[in-house]
Amino acid sequence: MSVKSFKFVSPGVFINEIDNSFIPKSAEAIGPVVIGRSTRGLAMQPTKVESYSDFVNMFGDTVPGNGGGDVYRDGNYQSPMYGTYAAKAFLRANVAPLTYVRLLGQQTSVGSTAGGDAAAGWKTDYTITAGGGSNNGGAYGLFVWPSASVAVTYDGTDIGTGSLAAIWYLNGQGTTLVLSGAYYDGMGNAVLTASAGTLVTSDSNGLFKVQISGATGTETVLFDFDDSKETFIRKRFNTNPQLCSTAGTFYPSDSIKDYWLGETFEQELRDGGDGATGDLTSNDNLVGIIVGIGQSGSSGVTSGNDPSQMKGQASAEAKAGWFIGQDLGAPVGYSPEGMQKLFRLIGRGHGAWLDKNLKISIEKIRQSATTTTEYGTFSVVLRNLLDTDNKVEIVERYDNLTLDPTSPNYVARIIGDTYLSWDTTGRRLKQYGEYPNRSQFIRVQMNADVDAGATDAVLLPFGYFGPPKFAGVTGVIGAGAAATAGSFLVGGENIPLSGLDYLGNRLSKITASFGMPSTRLRVSASAGGLSDPTNAYFGMSTTRISSSTRPDASVADSHRLWYPGFPDDPVGTAPASGIKGFGYVFSLDDVVYDSVNQGYYYLSGSRRNLASATSGSYTELLNAGYSRFTAPFWGGFDGFDIRKPDPVYNNGMAASSTEDNSYIYHTYRRAIDSVADPEFINMNLLTTPGLTNDALTTHMINVCEERGDAMSLIDLASVYIPPHEQYYADKASRIGTTPTAAAIALKDRRIDSSYGATFYPWVQTRDEGTRGQLVWIPPSVAMMGVLASSEAKSDVWFAPAGFNRGGLSEGAAGIPVTNITERLISKDRDTLYEASINPIASFPSSGIVVFGQKTLQERQSALDRINVRRLVIYLKKQISILSTQILFEQNVQSTWNRFIGLIDPFLANVKTKFGLSDYKLILDSSTTTPDLIDQNILYAKIMIKPARAIEYIAIDFVIMSTGASFDD
Asked: Is the dihedral of CA 363, 368, 372, 373 positive or negative?
């Protein structure tokens, strides 16, 4: 501090305290980028995690494959997710953070139009088409009615509204799905063999009989909708879409199916469906009819929006409908649809996981309690989808939020509103939004008027727009009736609804309506036996029945993305689009106070009819303590082909694949390119475990070389062929190459780069989360652990190989390694190492060990070894970081000295730790010449001699005679 900074007026002693003891912040630890699938987490954007516990919290645990179970509803766990093992192997060493890029299906605009393998998503092989015939693929729904709801006694009998109970997806040409039983005629007459489009009664035990016929044979199944029984529909039918693959591709040919069961709607049936006539899941007297599901055209056939044709749809974000404000006007003419939209919550990149696992509650809604502002407050809470109001499971919460855009507690500011979007021209992620995201799961989208402060300050979130739903069809009459054009009920030539003529003789015609499912709303605040009814959340209810405290797993089935290109904010109404714009619009304005029973309940339309608890003022309800409601997420999609055990498998690409003709290739390429910018992502390693496509693995190396601060670990093709790539009954066939063939194939690629490395063969690990299931994993996974543990034991410049740092049996991989796919003899190891493939060997006395550390550089130099390449990457990165401290300083001797003072101790420290055998730093007028100074350039030279690893030990054993001297 200069003496001029003191203020001298009158005499005295002036003292100023100067603290020069600040410890400079050390450079951030730099770790790898791993690209792969996971069960959940932000997708297609690099996400840093600091520990494996953080990784599990964000992306889930390791997945060994062979998950089984209800694949369509619960998710695809059929193939190993190698990226999760790589993350676990590396993070267990705790040497640096890891950045993970979770894959979800993407497509180019050209690929979307082209369809087939070029387009993301999935579809059944055939669709419902005019003329019918044997071309019976597509989606088919079973609608049910309680048979006792009305007696069929005369022409035109209206049996009411049936409920959609289940959807099957038929995959093959000629596959048919029919009900068998007896015609519904009220008299039990006319037993029929099997038919679609015909009303059929359940048997005396309440069971329906469905017959599915296709190329793989005929399957007859008895079932009901009671999930406590073995006859429960989801236990009786195939729910794995992958069993519809080509025979012998992923499963034995005798496992192949022509269909899978998709959504079932048990909650709707327990509530009696639209007819609300008792619990239909345990009703012994039901009537059913099977018809096609999809948006129908004028001829009653599908016309584009078909839930069985999800091709051309990349991953999509789940979102909540708009949250709306309370009514501030007169109750007469009130409609919740007309209330002010305030904000909505959108997933940050989780795909379908979000609407299958989380829901949103708005709670602690309070009007302003001060005279300084009219803005009230509220909380946003993310909850487990299948919790109940009796046992709330909170995932995230944000309290004391406001709609005041000038407030520090503005909802967008607290939760965040930024998002990343892929720029196809610049091939990079661009960020948009004002406020950084604090939520792991969601971002906020504000209504523009609210964001501008142009709405009434007293508005509070009071309700929401529910998810869209299929448009129902009313008053369908027999005599060959077809569905209404534009509805989601397909009749017409393929499946005429002639079965509505009971007895099949067209003497009498039945009228029927078809209702589509929607998640139940809580009616009574006291339902479920809450001790304090003010703890009830109105809005969406996820319990099995209204009075239950048990959740229902079927609620998420109503919230799926129903067809490609579905609008983000649907406003259309049936039948124009086949979708009811919003299934419902909920508002606390429609909560009623029951003065007789002294309780509160929800009744749609009550405010308009001057009967609600808010008829006087919305504050009356809030003051009574009823200030919370729940809304669902809907419309998430993963963009994957659900018929594949691994939707991004290598055999799904060809040598000629491009981004425009393969969605799998584009998905990988986009993920790799998202980390190509060194100013966007810090990394020193890049790997995509299990990816063996030559063009993509070469691109990974090229990206690292262009960055100059990372190296790539790649896997080679055909070293081991896992079941999700190709089904082989003979396990020996899974070894698709030999060391010699692998060496020749790699040499033919002519990679010649020190920024890449590869290993051979695959290794086996024991999955610790599934009671020791054995899993074959690519060598890049094990090497992530070896590199991390080697760095933890010593430093990045020590060779990650040998018995000290490469002993896989001794835990060097970070995860258990129990076997290798192929035992290499000495000759094999020589062949591989000469081709720059690092062998993983197995020795009887020493176990499994990494026995090489070459890079893929063909020319001999110090950089043809991994330890030297990693040393140079480390030096360049750290020196670059240190050098930024003098950027924009004066280009004079004192700055040069400062630079030398920063760099020289750093290099000396590396030398002390055996990274360098020697070095020399030159920065003077011989390097930074006057002409360079005039160009604003500081030029320094750093010459290094990397310490080399011992890879060969030569020892002469000389046998001498007894009388010879050792000095000779």
From this structure: positive
